[in-house]
């Protein structure tokens, strides 16, 4: 029996939460191990990783079929915030690749990638508290961590309501779970590159 078939949560968002718990703690530890709050220069490497991740998902955030499900989807994308943050921090844009941007995804997969990006806004509230010590804020250098319009909790609730309501067949369900894990792996890859 695969790990995922043992999961019992009725809600998809809860199942994705559960299977990404471990990758999330590993990523959290990895972020901390790079000491991103030691200086604005170190924090800029973290922002560069966020930029690459948002860039990966930029086309999904602007996908007409997904916007039908989540009307404010384009406004949720933070690629522009990270571009401005990197300019504030005087760090050039890292070069990305097209591997994820150009991937054709089914609905389950697409929503799972967005789940990870949208979920990262919850942790951002904690990261934002560290910014004053660096002279940064949601209007300078750490815009991408700022409170989304309408509030973090509300935005997350609205997104997961959609995620939980779409119908997926067993294969798409499986692909969604794999995509959530892949999204954490991708962020890890960006982080390692940007801090190298
Ligand atoms: C690329 C994806 C993600 C990154 C880089 C990320 C990063 C982080 C980091 C570094 C923290 C620690 C903040 C601190 O304690 O100082 C954190 C906390 C948190 N993250 Fe994430 N996260 C990601 C995805 C997610 C997802 C998908 C969810 C929800 C489904 C989520 C929910 C949370 C919550 C609720 C916290 C608050 C503390 C906790 O309960 O552990 N994050 N995140």
Automatic annotation (TrEMBL):
Residues 1-23 are annotated as: Disordered. Pfam families: Heme_oxygenase. This is Biliverdin-producing heme oxygenase. It comes from Ectopseudomonas hydrolytica.
């Amino acid at each position: 029996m695969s790990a995922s078939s043992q999961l019992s949560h009725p809600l998809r968002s809860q199942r994705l939460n559960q299977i990404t718990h471990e990758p999330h703690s590993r990523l959290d530890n990895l972020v901390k191990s790079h000491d991103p709050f030691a200086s604005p220069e170190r924090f800029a490497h973290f922002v560069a990783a966020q930029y690459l991740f948002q860039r990966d998902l930029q086309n999904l955030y602007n996908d007409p079929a997904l916007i039908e499900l989540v009307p404010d989807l384009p406004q949720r994308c933070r690629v522009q915030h990270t571009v401005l943050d990197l300019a504030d921090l005087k760090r050039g844009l890292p070069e990305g690749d097209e591997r994820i941007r150009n991937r054709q995804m089914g609905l389950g997969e697409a929503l799972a990638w967005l789940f990870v990006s949208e979920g990262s806004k919850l942790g951002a509230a904690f990261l934002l508290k560290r910014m004053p010590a660096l002279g940064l804020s949601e209007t300078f250098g750490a815009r991408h961590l700022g409170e989304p319009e309408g509030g973090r909790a509300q935005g997350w609730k609205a997104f997961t309501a959609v995620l939980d309501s779409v119908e997926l067949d067993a294969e798409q369900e499986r692909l969604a779970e794999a995509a959530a894990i892949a999204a954490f792996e991708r962020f890890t890859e960006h982080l390692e590159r940007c801090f190298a």
